[in-house]
Fold this protein.
Amino acid sequence: MSDIPVLTIDGPSGSGKGTIAQMIARDLGWHYLDSGAIYRVLAQAALKHNIELDDEIALTDLAQTLDVSFTVAGGELKVMLEGQDVSLLIRSETAGNAASRVAALPPVRAALLQRQRDFRTMPGLVTDGRDMGTVVFPDAPFKVFLTASAEERAQRRYKQLKQKGIESNLSDLIAEISERDRRDSERKVAPLRPAEGALILDSTELGIDAVYKQVSAFCADR
Ligand code: C5P
């Protein structure tokens, strides 16, 4: 148990959890951890070092020694892998899918557990992912599960990628997101599911501001 407060926001890809988590972290002056970025960077590192995405032993070794750093500059998360800026590279749907494959391997997840917990420092942490409330920070006082329909999430992801200058195709995105949801929900270890006591929010019909208000009110009430 730790006295350092944590707000966990879990949910499927494109549910808006990253945006909400960053807004709340900024407003509270808390640290922010994008746990998905760790899995994305690991998959990127595997690609760089010619490691197959199902080579459990080599990937676990890589996870233990992964040279990655996160900084927030101008409201954007900057991700460095072995001294190289990979912030944009890891955002493609291909990178997301590769991340979801390495994330399904139990020893890889175990190797990354402490690295994620180390982000819990004063004055507090806001983190988003799939198992933040269930596995990584089970004692977090504030837990949210944010979801939305697959079509709506694909639309949002399409817009996000376009803004970053990454070309994509909407029907491919719907198929990729659905496949990733299936893999993340059906895996044996740390499957995507709401933590006990989490506020469950469906944002299909809600704008960012409305979600932000509901999450803030939930935290203020506890
Ligand atoms: O959240 P994001 O889309 O960046 O996550 C990429 C992939 O990393 C997810 O599809 C999931 O398989 C994996 N992930 C995970 N546990 C987390 C965060 C992400 O398994 N806490």
Remarks:
- The two ends are 18 Å apart (CA to CA).
- The longest strand covers residues 68-73.
- The pocket of cytidine-5'-monophosphate is lined by residues 13, 35-36, 39-40, 96, 99-100, 103, 129-132, 180, 184 (CB under 6 Å).
